[in-house]
Amino acid sequence: MTFLQFAYKNVTRNKRAYLAFFLSSAFSVLIFFTFAMFLFHPALKEGYLNNIAKKGLTAAEWMIFVFSFLFVLYSVNAFLKSRNKEFGILLMQGITPGQLRALITAENMIIGIMSIAAGIIGGFIFSKTFFTVGAYILEMKALPLYMPWKALGITGGGFLLLFFLLSQFTIFFIRSNMIIKLIKGTEKIKPEPKPSVILSLFGVGCLAAGYGMVLKGNVHGYEPVFILLLTIIGTYFFFSQSSIWILRALKKWKTFYLRGKNVIWVSDLVYRLKDNARLFFIVSIISAVAFTATGVLAMYKATVGAKESAYEMEYLSYGGNKKEQTHLKEIEHDLKTHGFTYKRDDMEVSYIRYQQGDSAPPVIMINQSDLSKYFHVSLDGLKDGEAVYFPGTYDSNLKNESPDQLKLLNQKQKLTDQKLSVKEVKKPLISLNSVIAVNGETFDHLKSLGEKAALYGYSYDHWKDSLDFSQSLKNNFYGDYSDVHFDFMTKAGTYYDTVQLPSLSLFIGLFIAIVFFTAAGSFLYFRLFTDSDEDRQRYRSLAKIGLSEQEMSQSVTIQLAILFFFPFAIAVLHTLFALRTLTVEGYSNVAGPLSFTIGGFFVFQVLFFLAVRSSYLKKMKK
């Protein structure tokens, strides 16, 4: 048998152990490769949205690769610990550290090459669906298949280098002068964990303080960072101290502890929680990040949708705007150049402010006759001192209450005795700002309180095709923001901000979250496999004193359920409080996207749990 054949036999004979590592690595390669195929697609070479998509996909590629580095490093370390006895025997037989390094490198490269091949093949199979879904979500034209030589080279070369470099670190975990320790493996008798009461209370206190700050509301400034630190610190001490303290308290509850098989799984969990505290901390934080990111993106996409404004382009010019005519000419030149037939409406308005608590939000006041002429909205019976309120498209997305009465300010931001009673609140008219409509007499009487302004509205068809030059106009107009006496907004730009960009973020973030979550589940599997030999010996001893196979299965199931769903539950709790801040900020549609997100991950976790339970029980029953 050659050295390479020996390495191959080691992999194939431990295929059950390597299966989770192989599948998780292959899945990471698959996602990386499909993103790379999307990133280097010839159809994404030009266009504003395409450029943003390429930047997002590039960032995702780096995140997946860095996380894959940490994931593979942890996985290799876990497998090495489970094979301590094997390495000890090899060292006793005379294998040198260099040969051991070569053996481990060969094994990892075999797994790596198989993972890369499986991931790339899966990527090719999945690519058509990925392109179709991606083009649909991002509202692009259908993306045809192509031969992704660049994506193949980067994926294959990058992951081969990753597996090779990580293999070189493994020799540091094994020393030739530790043969006895390797032979003994993990057979040392472990003392019962004794948590610190002070640290247990400290962990719970940190979590309670963080959650309390969220419930209090008004999370601004440095408070989110402080809440994040409290949550991370509290989570670590909760798993390493508080959870063990709770289990030790259960052991003192004799009527519960000495009932049936409770004595087995409670005693085992005390040691498992202590040994796996850092792992549970990492899994819960990773899962919470995945849940929160996906939930926020799904909520934002569901809540902040595209609101129809009356015009495809809006330009509001204030007094002293010397660039008004220049800007209007540029708008019309670009519309004509790109083949758009447009209609322009010009109207006189007043840019006025009103008092709302400690703030002075602006509003555009328009004459009732202009409202009927340009927006085709008829208001009957509008009396002096009354107004109809039309929120801006962005304001209408939030759970903000429209004012019942507007206390108007003058141009010097001083409160006046002029008031407007809001008769009715209707759907948005434009995106630039909120609008109030008053009758002609009220408009003439109050327009001097505000700043004289002119509103120009452009209407044309196929507005989604105007994103590229719309964004170019916006960048040119605002420049360095040093001399701005106007507001400019386009429906294509608004749609990009509120629909297309969140869709792109959701599209990318969802796959990254799945990669993270899959790796988190794999971490638990690797840890179980590391301790499997010790667990088999323990259950063999318990079987000799009367433990039945059914009781063993029930005990294993309870322990695995706690190991899988305890960090999951903490992650869900963190996510609920993280998204609680969004309801305080005014976003109302949180429950639906959050339930869908967590429910999807929960189903995925249940399937993972059932697969691991089945594999683990088979190993225990052998």
TrEMBL record:
Residue ranges of every copy of the ABC3 transporter permease C-terminal domain listed in the record: 63-175
Primary residence: membrane
One Pfam family from the record: FtsX
PANTHER family: ABC TRANSPORTER PERMEASE-RELATED-RELATED (PTHR46795), ABC TRANSPORTER, PERMEASE PROTEIN (PTHR46795:SF2)
Residue intervals passing through the bilayer: 18-40, 60-80, 109-131, 151-174, 195-214, 226-247, 279-300, 504-526, 560-579, 591-612
Name by which UniProt lists this protein: Peptide ABC transporter permease
Stored InterPro entries: ABC-4_Integral_Memb_Prot (IPR052536), ABC3_permease_C (IPR003838), ABC_permease_BceB-typ (IPR027022)
A GO-annotated cellular component: plasma membrane
Record keywords: Cell membrane, Membrane, Transmembrane, Transmembrane helix, Transport
Superkingdom to which the source organism belongs: Bacteria
Protein's GO biological process: transmembrane transport
Family to which the UniProt record says this protein belongs: Belongs to the ABC-4 integral membrane protein family.
Topological relation to the membrane, as annotated: Multi-pass membrane protein
Subcellular location(s) per record: Cell membrane
